[in-house]
Amino acid sequence: MQPVPKVIVFDLDGTLWNPEMYQLSGGSPFTIPRNNNTNKKGKQNDHETNNNNKKEEEPSYDALLDRSGTAVRLIGETRQVLTTLLNDPRYAETYVAVSSTCDEPHWAAELLEKFKLEKINHNNQNKKEWVPMGSLFTDLKEVYYASKADQHRTILKK
Questions:
Q1: Domains recognised in the chain with CATH numbers
Q2: Average pLDDT, rounded, for the chain
Q3: For 121-130, b where at least 16 C-beta lie within 10 A, e where not — what string?
Q4: Rounded to an integer, what distance in angstroms lies between the CA atom of residue 28 and that of residue 140?
Q5: The sheet that has 71-74: what strands, in order across it?
Q6: What pTM value is reported for the model?
């Protein structure tokens, strides 16, 4: 089997999601848009919400809307890469971290909590559940204004 890294560190802005925090005018709170039952302005369509026989749609986890309606979207293969790191047994001993000097750390923390990844519970018949993206990084989240070198040293000390 091919060796895997012991530590993987991701930046947030421009690496996992776009736009960057400084580009947002609305900021927190971020909301999860619904698939197929919201119009372009983010309002619930009446015919969708009043139909009791229709199964509730899964939330869209590829974008979150800031207070002004600007979408923050996961970039490219972000979801697939992070889901692999979360579920693939080859990475069970790999530490996955975040190092970011983003302008709004509390916004980033909220996004890490609200973006979801699909986790496979191998102990429960491979049942799938949605977990916060931030749970992948455990306590290895260094999101504040400092040099990357300082943040990386802090991560390595943990």
A1: 7-157 (3.40.50.1000)
A2: 84
A3: eeeeeeeeee
A4: 23
A5: 17-18, 71-74, 63-65
A6: 0.80
